[in-house]
Design goal:
205 residues, alpha/beta, two-stranded antiparallel sheet, 6 strands, globular, binds zinc ion
Length: 205
């Protein structure tokens, strides 16, 4: 296989990218100058070296922001530690941050497809329970917000999590809420504008 074919195949594996788009990416790269391509290649190499996954929220972040295994959001003293906003992916956090949310996060790593037999393969449900039990034991948790996308998979994921979390919320005495109306049906949190997220947050129940 030559580099054009190899790269096309690599891009096809990206989420939401088909063969046609993959070929367009390669064409785009062919038309850039070599310093653009070199910087891109270097950045890809550094991704593995200069990044880490936060041990509390599982968000990927650059190493210079690391403090005892925590990202800059989890280690910041200014954040409201009692509220955890549960999202599907890292990109959702950037958007929620722009809405002015000041609590903490937990990244599930995805959503559960309807037909999935083993939900644990798609989301970090077990890790979320461990985090809640640990924080809950110290009486830190006041509220868990399920901030899932308004998609079929997002709804399904929310039901799975509610089933697991409702009994724990009663024992540890925290509120379990979901984003309210405002996110239109079919929309992913990643693409919702900050105002929409802010209004969905204020109408959470
Ligand atoms: Zn974190």
């Amino acid at each position: 296989m030559n580099p054009i074919e190899r790269l096309t195949e690599a891009f096809e594996k990206f989420p939401g990218i088909g063969p046609r788009q993959a070929r367009r990416f390669v064409q785009f790269l062919l038309h850039q100058n070599s310093s653009y391509r070199n910087t891109l290649a270097e950045d890809i190499k550094k991704l593995g070296l200069n990044t880490f996954q936060c041990k509390a929220c599982f968000r990927w972040s650059v190493k210079e922001h690391e403090k005892n295994g925590l990202c800059n959001i989890c280690s910041a003293t200014s954040r409201e530690k009692g509220i955890i906003f549960v999202v599907e992916k890292d990109a959702d956090i950037e958007n929620v941050e722009r809405s002015g949310f000041k609590g903490l996060y937990f990244v599930l790593g995805g959503a559960v497809p309807l037909a999935a037999e083993e939900p644990e393969k798609y989301i970090k449900a077990r890790e979320l329970l461990v985090r809640i039990q640990a924080d809950g034991a110290e009486n830190v948790i006041k509220e868990i917000i399920l901030g899932l996308s308004a998609t079929t998979e997002g709804d399904h994921t929310r039901l799975i999590l509610q089933e697991k979390l409702i009994p724990i919320s009663e024992t540890l005495k925290f509120k379990l809420t979901s984003l309210g109306r405002g996110l239109s049906t079919g929309s992913e949190l990643e693409y919702a504008d900050p105002d929409t997220i802010a209004s969905a947050l204020s109408s959470r129940q």
